[in-house]
């Protein structure tokens, strides 16, 4: 009996002393192998009386299990430490830069256009485009711009021939939408697009630029509805909490006509260099659709009314991002384009 | 229009209203005031007398003066050449704030100086209105100037403030002081009292003057001979008002013509009677000729331009500028007055072409008040008599006539409120209309306005509504939303596909660009897939922007060249734009890749911007839009080998329809466009919008195992991968689950003129597990077919 104790004690000590899997494997073979001390103990059985055998057998078994468990435990410990040292060798310099894929960029004019489109689509508007090579009819006549109006001069408009021109405003899309509706209401449409005017390119003028206009025609549409609608737009473009104000203005397409100012997004209305100290920034022209425009498109101006508004996308982008030269939008310097690389 | 506040005060009380308050009120009501500028500035000013003026001992140009201004003699050093003892001067005392400087007590070369003697320029008076002597020297006041008077600016008539008004194009009335006074009256709800000189020009002896208009563009012309005038300086107040308005005073006669124009909005022209011996004026518009105007410059007049002629000879560009040979000067002793109506379009065209946007022209262009000619002649006659000793007046001669009857507009309270979204009451509305002198007559819930002749912008009831809201104030408007049935707003299919495209491309690392639509002729010739007759502008601004582009390739290469010239690398761009030919439009997608699409040297990532990257992007994008690779056909490019590398470019088809060309930009063209090697694709987006994309549809996941086989085939170098894949698919039919080319090799161990292509074929059935009995013979059949058709041998 004491012998069993001795074997177990010695085995456990050896196992404990193992530092590698190989040593442990060796210890396992040594103690649990066919010629090992445990097996040797079993041979002592034959010398024992039948009464002693069960107790002895049980004792040797306990010893065997204890050794096996010790080996298993040790194995786990060694495995963990082996893994730990393996991992340690795999250490990397996490401060080295990763592979940062270039994420492309939308053109800032697309960013602003899409924001406005999405806002109005959410309010139930459709998005309409229309041809850039436009007929005089839709660009001028239907927009209530008479034949002798300065805008119809060769000086201001890129004419192609007597009837065709490059559209000078996205109002041309509106006049087409009005005609297409054939008197059917309501019309709720937002009209973005490229437009062209005979201007010399400089920091604030571009012969090509982008507009977005909106048109609503229905029964009982009011100037107050226009104000409420544009408040949404001001909030969306320049951040929540903007105030807007109307100032009287003049456009052929609308009567009454207004200029729309929004409280300066830089100073919040206190006055700064961006708003020239006024606290207000002019962003839109708008008004109630002129009855002539409605009538020309086949609507009865006594039974319906509408509002229209229009903004320059470049101007909004310039204000929003602090861009000082409109030519940037068309030069497409990648350093400029990279600016618009984040959610905003 | 520059509006003098002092001048306004002649008609309306501005008590208790500062210039800035007035400016704000006018701006809010629609007459935008862009500037509020005092005519002159200066504090601590006083009128003084130079008691003595002796040369400075240490200077050859300074004088040491003793000046009295009521506080005992004060020593001031003065450098003005015209300073002398005994004159009355403007003294800026110590502490005075002038536009450019603050006056301090100082020693000038050892001599004490306690103040400054001022020139008008130093008070901020515009040099334009000063004489050479006034600019170079101090202002010498009249001998009776009250010494000690501290209201110097007022004494000088320079206590005025000028509002720089920018009226909207419809408000022609705001080009006349009388109408501006009416507008100010309406805005402030104060009465503007305008003087009336009606009938002043009725006096006159029988005349021999003849006025003839041979152009319908001159429907009305009043002429009047004033036989005797005396040309001299005009009164100071008139000069001050003219200067405030930005017009230089010249002499009483010329000044009166300008002054009346500013008052009434009606341009006047005075001809020197002695230089018009025919006593005849004929307006014509049908000659080409040269004419020297009174600015001394020769102008080329052409058919269509309105001309003033006398005795068959031109003597003025009508409505714009008089001729040099009939102009008023110091020798003038009699005049002919012209007050005419010329067509605004004609004047605009002529003035723009000649670059002569004079005060007169700009008023004609905006449109005249119908009654202005008569008002102006009345006022001119009255002023000429008073300030130019006019006599020997002859009766007024009229050519044409004025067809004017007041416009009446009727509106209802209900419609007004409905349009505006307001709840105005009748008395609120009529209060505004009365302030505007619209004389509203109420009949139940409707009201009828009679529009004053100077308000040429009011025709319809909506015009009245605008007047009401702008004068009550837009702040009274609530913010509401249209009350109507709900509509489901949406993007069109085209718009949605465009957005998807932008998302795919930006996700891959490309940048969207927007380049100009207008291009030069060379770019039209360099178009990819031109599709009709070029569109040329009738009125281009330059040769560089003369055509509406029919392709994006040249513009995008220009953009790349710009960026590469600035040392940018890995420039990968796309653009979606319409391109045009006569009566045709196409929306296209352009993709331009250079260097690498993605690159990280440390992590050994380098997606080269080459043909295959471009092709892969195009295929993935097409698949995303619903056009899987099975529907796409890639063919050798035979359509454009001038702009594309003939052996590294391809035509891309959706079944039988050409989508576009992709490939390496031809090295010669790249060089011509100043760009490094790059790949480009130009694709017809319309085609994709109009074609039916394959819809998303779930196919049950594979339930049976697949069998994968790799093979390496040796084929001649000109054997295409596609021809191999086609045979595999043709033989294998539905048991081919996928094929993949994973290597192409040419070189050692491969026969010269041949290449090795390594492929993976995956066999799979959808309804059972494939057995060797099926796969082995099929695979063998494919190999033999490849050998017989393409002479492809398995690589040993």
Automatic annotation (TrEMBL), chain A:
Its EC number is 6.1.1.20. Keywords: Aminoacyl-tRNA synthetase, ATP-binding, Cytoplasm, Ligase, Magnesium, Metal-binding, Nucleotide-binding, Protein biosynthesis. This is Phenylalanine--tRNA ligase alpha subunit. PANTHER family: PHENYLALANINE--TRNA LIGASE, MITOCHONDRIAL (PTHR11538:SF41), PHENYLALANYL-TRNA SYNTHETASE (PTHR11538). Transmembrane segments: none annotated. It comes from the Bacteria. Gene3D superfamilies: Bira Bifunctional Protein, Domain 2 (3.30.930.10). It is found in: Cytoplasm. InterPro entries: aa-tRNA-synth_II, aa-tRNA-synth_II/BPL/LPL, Phe-tRNA-synth_IIc_asu, Phe-tRNA_ligase_II_N, Phe_tRNA_ligase_alpha1_bac, Phenylalanyl-tRNA_Synthase, tRNA-bd_arm.
From TrEMBL, chain B:
The keyword Membrane does not apply. GO terms for biological process: phenylalanyl-tRNA aminoacylation. It holds the Pfam family B5. Residues 404-479 form the B5 domain. Residues 39-152 form the TRNA-binding domain. GO terms for molecular function: ATP binding; catalytic activity, acting on a protein; magnesium ion binding; phenylalanine-tRNA ligase activity; transferase activity; tRNA binding. Its EC number is 6.1.1.20. Tetramer of two alpha and two beta subunits. NCBIfam families: pheT_bact, YtpR. This is Phenylalanine--tRNA ligase beta subunit. It comes from Anaerorhabdus furcosa. The gene is pheT.
């Amino acid at each position: 009996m004491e012998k069993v104790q001795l074997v177990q004690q010695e085995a456990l000590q050896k196992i404990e002393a193992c530092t590698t899997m190989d040593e442990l494997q060796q210890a396992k073979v040594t103690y649990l192998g066919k010629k090992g001390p445990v097996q040797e103990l079993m041979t002592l059985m034959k010398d024992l009386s039948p009464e002693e055998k069960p107790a002895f057998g049980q004792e040797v078994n306990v010893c065997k299990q204890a050794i096996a468990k010790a080996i298993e435990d040790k194995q786990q410990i060694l495995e963990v430490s082996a893994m730990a040292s393996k991992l340690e060798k795999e250490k990397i310099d996490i401060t080295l830069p990763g592979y940062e894929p270039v994420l492309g960029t939308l053109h800032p004019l697309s960013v602003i256009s899409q924001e406005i489109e999405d806002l109005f689509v959410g309010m139930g508007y459709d998005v309409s485009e229309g041809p850039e090579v436009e007929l005089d009819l839709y660009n001028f006549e239907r927009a209530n711009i008479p034949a002798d109006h300065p805008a119809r001069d060769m000086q201001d408009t890129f004419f192609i021939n007597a009837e065709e021109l490059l559209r000078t405003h996205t109002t041309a899309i509106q006049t087409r939408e009005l005609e297409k509706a054939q008197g059917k209401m309501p019309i709720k449409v937002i009209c973005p697009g490229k437009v062209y005017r005979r201007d010399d390119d400089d920091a604030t003028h571009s012969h090509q630029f982008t507009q977005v206009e909106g048109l609503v025609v229905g029964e009982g549409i009011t100037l107050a509805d226009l104000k409420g609608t544009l408040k949404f737009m001001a909030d969306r473009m320049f951040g929540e909490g903007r105030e807007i104000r109307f100032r009287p203005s003049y456009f052929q397409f609308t009567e009454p006509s207004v200029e729309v100012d929004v409280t300066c997004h830089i100073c919040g209305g206190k006055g700064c260099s961006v708003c020239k100290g006024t606290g207000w920034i002019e962003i839109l022209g708008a008004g109630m659709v002129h009855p002539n425009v409605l009538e020309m498109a086949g609507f009865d101006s006594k039974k319906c009314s509408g509002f229209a508004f229009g903004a320059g996308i470049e101007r909004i982008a310039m204000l929003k991002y602090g861009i000082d030269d409109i030519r940037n939008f068309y030069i497409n310097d990648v350093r400029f384009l990279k600016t618009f690389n984040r959610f905003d | 229009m520059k509006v003098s506040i002092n001048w306004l005060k002649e008609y309306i009380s501005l008590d208790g209203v500062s210039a800035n308050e007035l400016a704000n009120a006018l701006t809010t009501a629609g007459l935008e005031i862009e500037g509020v500028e005092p005519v002159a500035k200066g504090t601590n000013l006083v009128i003084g007398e130079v008691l003595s003026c002796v040369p400075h001992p240490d200077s050859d140009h300074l004088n040491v003066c003793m000046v009295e201004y009521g506080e005992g003699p004060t020593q001031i050093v003065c450098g003005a050449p015209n300073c002398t003892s005994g004159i009355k001067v403007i003294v800026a005392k110590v502490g005075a704030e002038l536009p450019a400087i603050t006056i301090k007590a100082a020693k000038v070369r050892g001599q004490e100086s306690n103040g400054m003697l001022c020139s008008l320029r130093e008070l901020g008076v515009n040099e334009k209105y000063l004489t050479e002597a006034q600019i170079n020297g101090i202002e010498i006041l009249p001998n009776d100037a009250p010494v000690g008077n501290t209201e110097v600016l007022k004494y000088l008539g320079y206590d005025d403030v000028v509002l720089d008004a920018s009226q909207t194009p419809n408000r022609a009335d705001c080009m006349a002081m009388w109408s501006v006074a009416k507008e100010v009256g309406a805005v402030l709800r104060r009465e503007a009292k305008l003087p009336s000189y009606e009938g002043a020009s009725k006096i006159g002896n029988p005349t021999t003057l003849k006025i003839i208009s041979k152009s319908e563009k001159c429907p009305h012309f009043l002429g009047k001979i004033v036989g005797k005038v005396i040309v001299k300086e005009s009164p100071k107040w008139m000069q001050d008002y003219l200067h405030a308005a930005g017009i230089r005073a010249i002499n009483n006669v010329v000044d009166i013509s300008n002054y009346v124009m500013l008052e009434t909005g009606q341009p006047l022209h005075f001809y020197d009677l002695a230089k018009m011996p025919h006593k005849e004026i004929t307006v014509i518009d049908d000659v080409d000729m040269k004419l020297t105007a009174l600015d001394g410059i020769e102008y080329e007049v052409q058919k269509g331009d309105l001309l003033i002629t006398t005795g068959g000879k031109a003597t003025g560009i009508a409505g714009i500028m008089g001729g040099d040979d009939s102009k008023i000067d110091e020798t003038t002793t009699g005049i002919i007055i012209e007050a005419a109506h010329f067509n605004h379009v004609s004047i605009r065209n002529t003035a723009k072409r000649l670059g002569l946007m004079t005060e007169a022209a700009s008023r004609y262009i905006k449109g005249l008040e119908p009654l202005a000619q008569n008002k102006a002649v009345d006022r001119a006659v009255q002023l000429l008599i008073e300030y130019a000793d006019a006599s020997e007046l002859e009766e007024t001669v009229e050519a044409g006539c004025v067809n004017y009857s007041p416009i009446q507009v009727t509106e209802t309270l209900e419609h007004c409120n409905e349009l505006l979204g307001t709840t105005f009451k009748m008395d609120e509305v009529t209060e505004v209309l009365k302030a505007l002198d619209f004389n509203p007559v109420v009949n139940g819930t409707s009201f009828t306005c009679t529009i004053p002749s100077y308000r040429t912008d009011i025709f319809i009831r909506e015009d009245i509504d605008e007047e009401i809201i702008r004068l009550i104030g837009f702040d009274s408007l609530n913010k509401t939303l249209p009350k109507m049935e709900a509509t489901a707003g949406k993007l069109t299919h085209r718009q949605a596909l465009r957005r998807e495209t932008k998302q795919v491309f930006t996700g891959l690392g490309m940048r969207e660009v927007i380049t100009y639509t207008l291009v030069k002729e060379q770019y039209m010739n360099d178009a990819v897939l031109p599709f009709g007759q070029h569109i040329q502008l009738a009125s281009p601004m330059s040769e560089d922007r003369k055509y509406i582009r029919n392709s994006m390739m040249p513009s995008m290469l220009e953009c790349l060249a710009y960026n590469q010239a600035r040392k940018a690398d890995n420039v990968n761009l796309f653009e979606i734009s319409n391109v045009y030919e006569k009566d045709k439009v196409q929306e296209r997608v352009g993709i331009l890749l250079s260097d690498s699409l993605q690159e990280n040297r440390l992590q050994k990532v380098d997606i080269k911007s080459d043909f295959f990257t471009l092709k892969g992007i195009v295929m993935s994008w097409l698949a995303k839009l619903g056009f899987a690779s099975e529907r796409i056909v890639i063919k050798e490019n035979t359509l454009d080998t001038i702009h594309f590398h003939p052996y590294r470019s391809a035509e891309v088809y959706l079944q039988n329809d050409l989508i576009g060309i992709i490939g390496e930009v031809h090295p010669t063209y790249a060089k011509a466009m100043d760009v490094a090697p790059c790949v480009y694709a130009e694709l017809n987006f319309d085609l994709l919008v109009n074609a039916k994309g394959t819809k998303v549809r779930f196919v049950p996941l594979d339930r049976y195992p697949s069998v994968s086989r790799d093979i390496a085939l040796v084929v001649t170098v000109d054997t295409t991968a596609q021809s191999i894949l086609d045979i595999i698919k043709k033989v294998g039919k539905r048991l081919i689950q996928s094929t993949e080319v994973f290597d192409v090799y040419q070189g050692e161990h491969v026969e010269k003129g041949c290449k090795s292509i390594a492929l993976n074929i995956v066999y799979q059935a959808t309804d059972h597990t494939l057995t060797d009995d099926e796969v082995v013979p099929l695979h063998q059949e494919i190999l033999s077919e490849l050998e017989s058709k393409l002479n492809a041998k398995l690589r040993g």
